[in-house]
Each structure stands twice: as structure tokens, then as C-alpha cells.
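OP here, attaching both records as promised.
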Amino acid sequence: MTARVSDLRSSAAAVAPASPFVVRRRAELAVVEEHRKAMRARVAITILAGVFIALFAVAGSATHIVGQQRHLDSINRDIANEQDLSQKLGAQLAELQSPVRVTRDAAAILGMIPAPTPVYLEPRADDDARAAEVPPASTAAVR
């Protein structure tokens, strides 16, 4: 009882009413399996590409953050230097404006001498009336 596979297929096709589905089903299963393998490969490549892009984005953003931090550190260093300079200039200004230094430099550089006693001006009773007077026009101004 040896039968060939082709004889069995032809006899099965004659016996079964919908036998073309059986042959197509087997052929479709083989194609679907190949399609699934190709789809898995595409999904794997897409996932790997996504992971690569995500890692590249993380590395790029980390580089950007490091650059911004370096810039902020530079600005903070400049601010600290300017604050030190401001403190030094403030101390220098306070020393230059001190009354002791002003009187010392006035005497040494400008040759000024301190007044022996202060002279206070006292108003008189008729000062208000005299302040309202209009002085006469001078003849020198007319020429």
C-alpha cells in the first residue's frame, strides 16, 4: 500500500467539497509565518531605532544642560568678583569721604586752615523790610 502524496491530495480534493481551502490554508500559513518574521524584524528595528534616538536625545540634552551650567557658573563667578570690587570701592569711598581725611587734605594740599571760632550770623529786626526794597539801577548797566 504505497500511495504517493500527489495521489492522496488529488483523492482528498475529490472527496472533500471545499478542498481548495485546505491547500490555500497551508500555503497562507507559510506566507503568514514569513510575514510575521518580517513584521517582527521591522518592529525590532523600529524599537532599536527608537531606543537609539531616545539615547541620542538624552545625551544631547545632557550636553546642553552641562553647557548651560558652565555658563551659569561663569556668571556667578563674575557676580562674586564684581561684589568684591564693589566692597573694596565702598571701603575706599568711605575712607575718602571721612571728615578727618578731608580736613587733613584741605590743610596739606589746599593750604586751608581751620577757623579759630565759628561766626554765626544773627538777623536784625529790619532785615525783612530791607529785603523787599528794590535796589536802584546802576549807571554802569545802562551803558
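Record two, same layout:
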Amino acid sequence: MEKKVAIEYLYLDLNTCDRCVGTDAILDEVVSTLQPALELAGYEVCYEKREMTTVKDAVKYEFLSSPTIRVNGEDICGAVKENACGCCSDISGTAVTCRVFTYEGKDYEVPPKAMLAEEILRRVFGGTLEKTPREAYVLPQNLKDFYRGKMTKNVKCCCGGSSDCC
């Protein structure tokens, strides 16, 4: 039986969101550092990034908060903790909160490298973690607001922007 490590990065935006961009860069660095050791230990590493561009994507991947990092299907944070995200609020034109990563008693908008390395390694080598039963997925209101605002903000007026018809 082949041993696999599936690392998924789910996010809302890698163009303007400082939180998603920063987490992406840190996660890339941590995965590239850990991958040779994991392969040496006989693991195949599958690292995938997925932009949650639509409600359909969010529902398909049971997306709860941005950004999300999963190892073998488990969210490395467990519970969702969020605070206001100016970047995603700007994207959608509505107030949006995004994930905060808690590590050693402090909250971070971009997770520290040590936190990511520990959580990835814990899920690979920590033995069988007790899986928390998941409730049926429901798209969080925060994400509903983000997608609705983004869609509304990006709608182009049919008459070239004249305030008379829009």
C-alpha cells in the first residue's frame, strides 16, 4: 500500500488578498521544505491549490473559511476563527471576515512556518487522530455575503454605465 499525503490549499483570492497571498507563499515554502523528507519516508506528496471562485466550488469542497489548509482531508485548524478582512471586503463590496490562525496562544492572519510544519507533520506521523464528526455542510453566511457582493459588484451595466438606466 502506497502512503500518501494530500495537502490542499483553498482560498478566495491570490491577486489582492494579503492573507491568501501570504499564506500561499508560506505554505509553498513549508511544503517544498518538507516534501523531500516525506518522500524519503516513503510518502507520495500531492499538493493542490484551489480557488473558491463560486458558491458551487465552495459547496463542492465544503469550504468554511478563507484560507483553509487541509492535510488528508482534515482542516489543520479544526475550528474556524475569523476577523475582518479588508482585502476580501474590497473585492466583494461587503464586510467579510477571513480565517485567523492560532498558534502558541497568538492569532495570525498569515500562519507562521513552524505552525504549518508542525500541523502537517502531526497529521502524517502523529498516528491516528481522532476525527471529529462533521455536521452536514452549510455554506456560511459570511461566504454567501462575499459571493453575492462579488457577483453584484462585477455586474456590468448594459447601457455603458449611464446612471439613467443602472
